[in-house]
Amino acid sequence: MANQDKTTNRQQDILPEPTLRRLPWYLAYLTTLHAQNVEYVSTTRIAEDLKVAPSQIAKDLSFLGLRGKTRIGYSVDELEDTLRRFLGFAQRHNAVMLGVGSLGAALMADSGLQRYGLNIVAGIDINKGIIGTQINGVPVYSPSALSELVGKLKVTIGIIAVPVECAQDVADGLVEAGIKAIWNFTPTRIAVPDGVVITNTSIYSHLAVMYNRLSNLGQ
Amino acid sequence: MANQDKTTNRQQDILPEPTLRRLPWYLAYLTTLHAQNVEYVSTTRIAEDLKVAPSQIAKDLSFLGLRGKTRIGYSVDELEDTLRRFLGFAQRHNAVMLGVGSLGAALMADSGLQRYGLNIVAGIDINKGIIGTQINGVPVYSPSALSELVGKLKVTIGIIAVPVECAQDVADGLVEAGIKAIWNFTPTRIAVPDGVVITNTSIYSHLAVMYNRLSNLGQ
Predict the structure, then answer these.
(1) Residue A137 needs a FRET pair 20 to 30 A away by CA distance; which of A17, A41, B146, B162 works?
(2) What are the CA-CA distances from residue A28 to residues A18, A52, B49, B76, B202 (Å)?
(3) Cα angle at A204 between A202 and A208, to 5 degrees?
């Protein structure tokens, strides 16, 4: 009985994932309003512009502890700022990039990730030709440096962009080194122990979905 | 009644999206087996390795018109090749990159996309400093060149990596130029008319989900 209560509480504390996926849309929308010098926005207007039910928006935003003022709505600046903080974009999260090939190097070169709080502090690769070089000012090391880097630079996130056949081994090495979250850019599934976060961004799977829908258009 | 039958048929023709999202995993897995010189693989082994129910795998692969042989299973080479073709990765799909900033340029530099059939033939940007230059051998043009490029180079896909406040305008321009599919890398929602495919890859939204799970770990 005590256990059951604990489970229930824990689930209530955790934000529902659909809400969490909508919040960055709201933030993007507010950034647009900000650029247009809009000062206040109502739930009704957000709902119309984003085609989300007003009740859903009010519920989603209630997780932030914010409420719109009657008739005026939300302050765009305040809501944008609160969302950015709430989503963790205002903090710095240190990460290492495993696999500095084409995609890995591309992600290291994307300053957008930095604006969203991701601070890639090191690249790791087995290619001797790039070990010791820098990508976008970030040094590339050999895999043997991983454990020390994680401890010394307070790295919590490992990003995996290695060839698919090495992905699980690399993930195991990250877990052993004490990484708390893995962001997997390979198209494979990776197994991690409980207590380690895994987030999949399967760019190439999205391509397959797009190609399939494209070919269905012609039918 | 006739209409109802038609709808039913159409839905049967279209591959279920969960299946479509699993197929690239199977392909990635087969690539790994291939690298290990494995010649045949059974549904049972795929199921164990990928932690997917055997019946699900058999159902998913039945969409390819392939059936494993009793006791031997599937030929790894044949299944890999069939999956690659089925997913559209063996064809070339011409695309333009809208917004050659940090993320756009990074994606243009990712040769992995090319291996999965995406052929970025041009970049488009408003920045006069990069118009006329090349990224990874691909020329960058001004927005005024879009319509002509789409027609001349048989471009079907537009990739959007512009600042969020310009995303909808850029999408409207792509639709007007005759693009059939939009791959949206911005964190905003984009509205497109019926008959145009929209695929969202919200990298930064995935970051928010990862940060949130990371902060829940500590609780």
Answers:
(1) B162
(2) 16, 14, 39, 44, 11
(3) 115
- Chain B hits for A215, Cβ within 8 Å: 88
Q: What share of chain A is helix, strand, coil (3-state, %, to 5)?
A: 50, 15, 30
In this prediction the pTM is: 0.84
Closest CA to A122 of A163, A103, A94, A88: A94
Can you tell me the distance from the alpha carbon of B182 to that of B93, in angstroms, rounded to the nearest whole number? Answer: 12
Buried b (16+ CB within 10 A) or exposed e, A93-107: bbbbbbbbbbbbbbb
Alpha-carbon distance B158 to nearest alpha carbon in chain A (angstroms)? 11
Q: Distance from A195 to chain B by nearest Cα, in Å?
A: 7
Tokens of B101: 């900033």
Contact B209 A117 (CB under 8 A): no
**B210 with A181: Cβ contact below 8 A:** yes
Which one-letter amino acid corresponds to residue A123? G
Provide Rg for chain A, Cα atoms.
Answer: 21
> Encoding tokens for residue A163?
């060839």
Q: Between chains, do B51 and A189 touch, taking CB under 8 Å as contact?
A: yes
Q: What is the pLDDT of residues B73-84, one digit of tens each?
A: 899 999 999 999
Rounded to an integer, what distance in angstroms lies between the CA atom of residue B116 and that of residue B93?
9
Sheet holding B118-124, edge to edge: B134-135, B138-141, B118-124, B93-98, B157-160, B181-184, B197-200
Question: Which chain A residue lies closest to B28 (C-alpha atoms)?
Answer: A188
Q: Is there a contact between B120 and B96 (Cβ–Cβ < 8 Å)?
A: yes
ipTM rounded to 2 decimals: 0.87
- % pLDDT > 90, chain A: 63
- Segments in chain A below pLDDT 50: 1-12
Helix (H, G, I), strand (E, B) or coil at A86: helix
| Nearest CB to B187; choose among A17, A24, A217 | A24
State the Cα–Cα distance between residues A149 and A219, nearest whole angstrom: 53
Decide if B199 and A210 are in contact by the 8 Å CB cutoff.
yes
